[in-house]
Design goal:
The protein has about 220 residues and is mainly beta. The protein has one helix and 14 strands. The chain is elongated.
Length: about 220
């Protein structure tokens, strides 16, 4: 509940901050891009030993629509990622397909004005992220006495952050290179502890390149 309130507050604040200056020369933008999806791992502690619960490196795509101004910008964004899930430890491992999808609103703060051809920026936002196991359900898993992977879905409140650079490639076309950071609490319905304990946050990095059209 606490992280949900944080994500909701950031999202609402971003909407207000980005929409408020709309009458002062903001432009609309639509774009899409893709890149790598990289997660930090978590440990499941149990009496029998420790097991790593992780999402293997994968890839993702993102599409967005928003507004950009002289110093502020805001965008509503959909992000889809594919990462296999894995439990490993005690000389055993088990892997299952996995994907996520997220809907979030991000507020960008630019260091240069809108007339600059190159514009570095930082961003922060929030929304919701769905974790889904896509593999076949297996009743007996190698590490099933400690934790199991499931082919279920689970929504988690999401906090986003990051930074990058926007480069104008024409009067209406831009290219963006950025690194995005996604933070959620651990999805314990998808990665389910049995006798072990799994808590804390998953940190997901997404370096990506996007192309956008501005008018």
């Amino acid at each position: 509940m606490f992280c949900f309130r944080i994500a909701s507050f950031i999202t609402v604040a971003g909407l207000i901050a980005a929409i408020a200056p709309a009458a002062y020369g903001q432009q609309w933008e639509v774009g899409a891009g893709g890149g790598a999806s990289i997660y930090g791992s978590k440990s499941i502690s149990a009496a029998a030993g420790s097991v790593d619960a992780k999402f293997k490196p994968g890839y993702g795509f993102s599409a967005y629509v928003g507004q950009i101004g002289n110093r502020l910008g805001g965008e509503l964004r959909y992000t889809w990622q594919s990462n296999e899930m894995e439990l490993s430890g005690l000389s055993r491992n088990f892997t299952m397909g996995g994907r996520t999808q997220a809907i979030h609103y991000d507020l960008s703060v630019y260091f240069n004005g809108k007339n600059s051809g190159t514009r570095p920026y930082v961003l922060v936002g929030g929304g919701m992220k769905q974790y889904t196991g896509t593999g076949d359900a297996i009743a007996i898993q190698p590490l099933g006495s400690i934790a199991v992977l499931t082919n279920t879905s689970e929504w988690k409140p999401l906090i986003t952050a990051g930074g990058g650079v926007r480069i104008a490639t024409g009067n209406k076309s831009h290219i963006r290179a950025e690194v995005r950071l996604f933070l959620t609490e651990t999805p314990t319905k998808v990665i389910t502890p049995v006798t072990g304990s799994l808590s804390g946050w998953y940190i997901n990095f997404m370096p990506m390149v996007s192309l956008s059209y501005v008018w």
